[in-house]
UniProtKB/TrEMBL annotation:
Single Gene Ontology BP annotation: carbohydrate metabolic process
One annotated GO molecular function: metal ion binding
Cofactor section: Ca(2+)
This protein's name: Beta/alpha-amylase
SUPFAM superfamilies cross-referenced by the UniProt entry: (Trans)glycosidases (SSF51445), Glycosyl hydrolase domain (SSF51011)
Transmembrane regions listed in the UniProt entry: 450-471
């Protein structure tokens, strides 16, 4: 029993040595490009209520009403997001709005006062910048409120939307296009936002979208411009719903048909990697419908999310397994009753990604894919990683060849601290428990497990130090006892 405890302690020390300050980005926001980011996607009203002064009758028990979340809440909970390793937060549309989700825009010229003041917005953005994190916001190009100031003031600009409750803009009208571009540029300049997600643009002309992207980039070349729908426009990120479906199918249950993983790879622009978004059924719901245990499912899924090629995007509340089939049920007020084990796992894997340029930008090769047993490599001139995902109902072994990894290597696991050396027959045999995942760094096999040795020394040194302190205190107590008797 003591040996088992010792081994677990050594493993913990080894993981700490390998991961270190994993939650911190290794390059500053000014030096990062979009592939270096990992995005936490939320809505201002549904995150955290930092001050009641702007609540205006908000009701946190009513999914259809404003719940009270604000910029002050996002600022107060900055560390919560950062601790999970995210480098950017997306906060949805923040213009004056008739609905909690910000979509029913009333004007592009003012910020929703339920979310806070202009100063509170800038203070929040500054706080994230000080933490080396970025802030993105949405700019809806349609589906705005029927009471939008342009709807009645500018004839012919508005057309009824399909939902019958909002209006779209005539995006073929050049005056409308110019006005939208001017509004988006002004918004980016005045807020100092780091990224703009263009939403609800329907079948807008690609040339118009490219013109808007170019105008936004003129405000700041580093501004990230992306979308929530597929487009041929020159966005910095590719939104592909097929990728979401591939990931959901591969990780929603044990022993899945994971053949879709064969279609994943490096793309230009990078693909957004996500299991759900603010417009879809929550991934957790799919798990529950199949009678799966969400924290276990999410552990394997999160490992994939932060190690596959692309930019990971996680919808808020995934770390507490939020479920729901459609809005507003999919947009609950965050209760922060966190599954610490899942949150820590997200932090560890996302943090490792932050530390490794290879995991962010390196080459990708799928080495094995068979009904949930998935193995792939991320590599560069500096390092090679092997990620093993056993999304099956049984313990599995996978044999990787010397052709795949090279001769004389060893694989060091970062989660379970296992070592895999080349067998006499030439293979590298990796064994992983059911519903488990691990990351292996590929090294030259020197025959020595340096991190393990260092960890063992630290454990023994700590133990000896503890024994010494107990002995010293005991000796002091005995000495004090004798002195007391002498005085008596």
């Amino acid at each position: 029993m003591k040996i088992d405890v010792f081994k677990k302690t050594v493993a913990a020390f080894g993981a700490a040595l390998l991961i270190g300050t994993a939650a911190l980005p290794t390059v500053s926001a000014e030096e990062r490009n979009v592939l270096d980011e990992s995005i936490y996607d939320t809505l201002v009203d549904r995150f955290f209520n930092g001050t009641t002064e702007n609540d205006q009758g908000a009701d946190p028990t009513d999914n259809y009403d404003f719940n009270g979340g604000d910029f002050a809440g996002l600022q107060e909970k900055l560390e919560y997001i950062q601790d999970m390793g995210f480098t950017a937060v997306s906060i949805g549309p923040i213009f004056e709005t008739a609905t909690y989700d910000g979509r029913a825009v009333l004007t592009y010229g003012a910020i929703e006062d339920r979310f806070g003041t202009d100063k509170e917005l800038k203070d929040m953005i500054s706080a994230y910048h000080d933490a080396d994190m970025e802030v993105y916001a949405d700019f809806p190009l349609g589906g705005v409120s029927q009471d939008h100031e342009w709807a009645s003031g500018r004839e012919g600009w508005a057309v009824p939307a399909e939902d019958g409750e909002s209006v779209d803009w005539d995006l073929e009208n050049e005056e409308v296009q110019d006005a939208l571009i001017d509004a988006a540029v002004t918004f980016a300049e005045e807020t100092g936002i780091d990224g703009v997600r263009l939403t609800r643009f329907g079948d807008a002309d690609t040339a118009f979208l490219d013109r808007m992207i170019a105008a936004l980039k003129e405000t700041s070349p580093s501004l990230v411009v992306f979308s929530d729908a597929p487009s041929e426009a020159e966005f910095d990120l590719d939104y592909d719903p097929a990728v979401m479906e591939i990931l959901r199918s591969a990780f929603v249950e044990m022993d899945p048909d994971s053949s879709g993983m064969d279609e994943l790879g490096l793309t230009d622009p990078p693909t957004m990697m996500f299991f759900d978004d603010l417009n879809t059924t929550r991934f957790t719901t799919e798990m529950v419908d199949r009678k799966m245990f969400p924290p276990t499912r999410w552990n394997v899924a999160a490992t994939a999310l932060f190690t596959l090629p692309g930019v990971p995007v996680m919808t808020y509340g995934s770390e507490i397994a939020v479920a729901g089939k459609e809005a507003p049920g999919t947009h609950p007020l965050h209760n922060f009753k966190t599954d610490e084990e899942l949150k820590d796992h997200i932090a560890d894997v996302n943090g490792i990604r932050n530390q490794s340029e290879t995991l962010r930008t390196g080459d990708f090769e799928l080495l094995h894919n068979d009904n949930g047993l998935i193995v792939y490599e991320r590599s560069s001139d500096e390092e090679t990683w092997v990620i093993v995902l056993n999304n099956t109902s049984e313990t599995q072994r996978v044999d990787l060849t010397a052709e795949q990894l090279g001769e004389g290597k060893r694989l060091r696991a970062l989660i379970d601290n296992n070592l895999v050396s080349q067998a006499d027959s030439g293979e590298y045999r990796i064994v992983l428990d059911r519903e488990a995942a691990d990351l292996f760094i590929v090294e030259e096999d020197t025959g020595l497990n340096i991190p393990y040795i260092i960890a063992a020394i630290l454990v023994y040194a700590t133990f000896i130090g503890f024994i010494y302190m107990v002995w010293r205190k005991g000796k002091q107590r005995a000495k004090d006892g004798k002195a007391g008797k002498s005085k008596a």
